[in-house]
Amino acid sequence: MLHKLTLIPLLFCLLSAQSFAEITQQELTQLQEKANQGNSEDEFRLAQTYLNEPSIKNEEEAFYWFSQAAEQGHQQAQLQTADMLVKGQGTQKDINAAALWYTQLAIEGNHQAAFNLGELYEQETESFDALDQAELWYRLASSQLPQAQQAYERVLQAQFNQRRSQQVSSFKALDEQYSEQATTQLTNSSSMTTSQTTQPAFQASQQSKTSHNLIIGLAIVITLLLGITGFLVAKLRKNNQTKTEDINREQIKLKDIQLKQQKHQIATLYKELKKRQSSKSNHNLQLACAVFGYKISAIPEQKKIKIRYKQLSKIYHPDGQGSDEEMKRLNAALKTILQNVTKT
């Protein structure tokens, strides 16, 4: 009895270790192959693996696959993508992009996304302006309304122009500040030198015995002037460095807007390509069904399709009433229909 009781914890430990075993390379490869086929659920699973599996943890890969699944409408992936954008986890922090995902989910009835969006507006008050809000809502409407698509592109252009205008203004302000400080510095240096050199000259003419002391005093004054000049130059350089950093930040934001425009254009082209491919595929299936006498909405199972094929072969075969061309058309139609049945 005692031995049995001892074996129970041991068995539990073995089962626990097995259940928490690290993913093998073969399992990871299988996950990757499935995800590469474009299924959103497989993409989501692969992203979770990269995020949570210690042995292969890769936040950049996790974000990539979460965003791929999100683009296909996977709600959990959309929420995770937004969360990672807010934290800057596995990608660059982007509050506006996160707000877009949260808003889309909130409209669809996701309460967690609505709560997260509320927190975002409360905590990131400086991250949103009118153009950002316009961009967000136009982007949501652009998938259904052509005028929203045009408005979205117009807002992106307005954001680009705004950033560029701010950049130009920063350059002008920097130039004006530099010129003003340089002029002030030269004026102060000249006035101080004149006042100090005039006084020792006057005193030297009145009291020749103190000329040595005056020379020493003049040397001290010149040293002070040099120190003040050095301080002003250092301060000016520091201000210039700060302005340069601000300008660099503006340039980065400008490039982000350009990148966003390019990504949107690529996404639009990709959707159009998929739409055309789908349309072409449906057209081929319609023709194939017409050859077999089927409707697309009522294609039977494979067994019945093959029976129908044998019946039609007797008609279309060159040895019967048909020709080689008709037989080729029948074979192509069979292949198209069977491919569609396999997919479904």
From TrEMBL:
Positions with biased composition (Low complexity): 183-199
Signal peptide: 1-21
Keywords for this protein: Chaperone, Membrane, Signal, Transmembrane, Transmembrane helix
Region (Disordered) location: 182-204
Database matches in SUPFAM superfamilies: Chaperone J-domain (SSF46565), HCP-like (SSF81901)
A Pfam family the protein falls into: Sel1
Cell membrane found in the keyword field: no
Matches recorded under InterPro entries: ISR_Activator (IPR052748), J_dom_sf (IPR036869), Sel1-like (IPR006597), TPR-like_helical_dom_sf (IPR011990)
TM segment ranges: 214-234
Matching SMART domains: SEL1
Protein's name according to its UniProt entry: Molecular chaperone DnaJ
Organism of this sequence: Vibrio fortis
